[in-house]
């Protein structure tokens, strides 16, 4: 056992539904073990500026169902410099914080790894990102809510598409990772899904549209925003219009709607489990790792192994798209 008496918790990078549930779990678990806990507003930037808030049970009451993050979030250029990290360390030691819980994605964990190593400071991370692109956990906090939000939105788009015999190209988030597009695309019965991990063959797409059932009153194509082979949703739309002028082709960009909203039960439970585990493991002396869930069990992955680009696309899911979209 180490002698941690005060824990700091913060959210960093892009917001994700379920972050508040994670903050609640960290705060209440710390209090359960008779530790003090401070919230750090606006991530690493707030750490540098000394934006610390003492937190108690009441401060996290009635937030488990709220999207976004009550601690706010920000990206910090200053923290990328040694001077910025030195100031952050000075600030957290000034309020006698002994350990940190960082809730975020790959950028958050990259910063946590460097900071922890430079100052031999205990930090554990919780995977809070809608992209589900971190190695070491089956699902990230916010992913389930995001794909359900996308599914609901596309279901509504399908209604208007069928009413007007339209072809809709829907752009979803996924700059470097196509998991939102892939899973939600299967869920809505999309005719085609284009993601960064696979090379888009526009000739094959055109052929697929050419041989598709003529009696289908709507067609949905999903494009992840990071899919670069085809030039993006609007360029694909122009090429389809040129080849198939009979289609009433439209583009819908879902944008930041995918980040917001009430977290699903799955995200709330995931965030709660990981938050409790993070505090308990900090008390035991664990540091420098992300807390995840693999096959239903709590798992720990070093920060440098957890960052994105390690997650491989399930080829079975790609095959399912091809089989079911006929």
Helix tally? 11
Number of strands: 11
Counting structural domains, the number is: 2
Overall pLDDT, averaged?
92
- Class based on secondary structure composition and strand pairing: alpha/beta
CATH class division of the largest domain: Alpha Beta
The residue fraction in helices comes out at 40-55%
Low-confidence stretches: none
Tell me the major beta sheet. 7 strands, mixed
Distance between the termini: 59 Å
- How are strands sequenced across the largest beta sheet? 3-2-1-4-5-10-11
- Binned strand content: 15-25%
- What Rg is obtained from the alpha carbons, in whole angstroms? 22 Å
CATH topology of the largest domain, by name, is Rossmann fold
Give the ordered list of helices and strands.
Answer: EHEHEHEHEHEHEHEHEHEEHH
CATH architecture label name of the largest domain = 3-Layer(aba) Sandwich
Shape: elongated
Structure characterization notes:
The structure is a single chain. With 326 residues, this protein is α/β, with parallel strands linked by helices. The chain has 2 domains: 6-142 and 263-306, Rossmann fold, CATH 3.40.50.450; 144-259, Rossmann fold, CATH 3.40.50. It has helices at 19-32, 43-49, 82-94, 106-119, 143-164, 179-188, 202-211, 233-243, 265-284, 303-306, 315-324; strands at 6-11, 36-40, 52-54, 99-104, 123-127, 166-172, 192-194, 219-224, 248-253, 289-294, 297-302. The strands form 2 sheets. It has a 7-stranded mixed β-sheet with strand order 3-2-1-4-5-10-11, sandwiched between helices. A 4-stranded parallel β-sheet has the order 7-8-6-9, sandwiched between helices. Strand 10 and strand 11 (297-302) form a beta hairpin. The radius of gyration is 22 Å and the shape is elongated.
């Amino acid at each position: 056992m180490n002698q941690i008496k005060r824990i700091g918790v913060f959210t960093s990078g892009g917001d994700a539904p379920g972050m508040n549930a994670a903050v609640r779990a960290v705060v209440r678990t710390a209090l359960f073990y008779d530790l003090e806990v401070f919230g750090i507003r606006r991530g690493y930037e707030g750490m540098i500026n000394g934006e610390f808030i003492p937190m108690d049970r009441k401060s996290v009451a009635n937030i488990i169902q709220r999207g976004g993050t009550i601690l706010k979030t920000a990206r910090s250029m200053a923290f990328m410099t040694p001077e910025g990290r030195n100031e952050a360390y000075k600030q957290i030691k000034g309020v006698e914080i002994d350990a940190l819980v960082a809730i975020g994605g790959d950028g958050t964990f990259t910063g946590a790894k460097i900071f922890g190593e430079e100052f031999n400071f205990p930090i554990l991370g919780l995977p809070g990102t809608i992209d589900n692109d971190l190695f070491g956990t089956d699902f990230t906090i916010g992913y389930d809510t995001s794909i359900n939000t996308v599914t609901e939105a596309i279901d509504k788009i399908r209604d208007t598409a069928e009413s007007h015999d339209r072809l809709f190209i829907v752009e979803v988030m996924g700059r470097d990772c196509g998991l939102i597009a892939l899973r939600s695309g299967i869920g809505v019965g999309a005719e085609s899904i284009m993601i960064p991990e696979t090379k888009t063959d526009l000739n094959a797409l055109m052929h697929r549209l050419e041989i598709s059932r003529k009696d289908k009153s709507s067609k949905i194509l999903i494009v992840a925003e990071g899919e670069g082979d085809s030039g993006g949703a609007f360029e694909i739309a122009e090429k389809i219009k040129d080849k198939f002028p009979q289609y009433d082709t439209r583009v819908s960009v879902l944008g930041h709607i995918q980040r917001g909203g009430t977290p699903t039960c799955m995200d709330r439970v995931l965030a709660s489990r990981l938050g409790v585990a993070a505090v308990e493991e900090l008390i035991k002396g664990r540091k420098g790792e992300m807390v995840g869930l693999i096959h239903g069990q709590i798992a720990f992955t070093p920060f440098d192994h957890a960052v994105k680009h390690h997650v491989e696309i399930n080829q079975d899911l790609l095959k399912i798209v091809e089989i079911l979209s006929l």
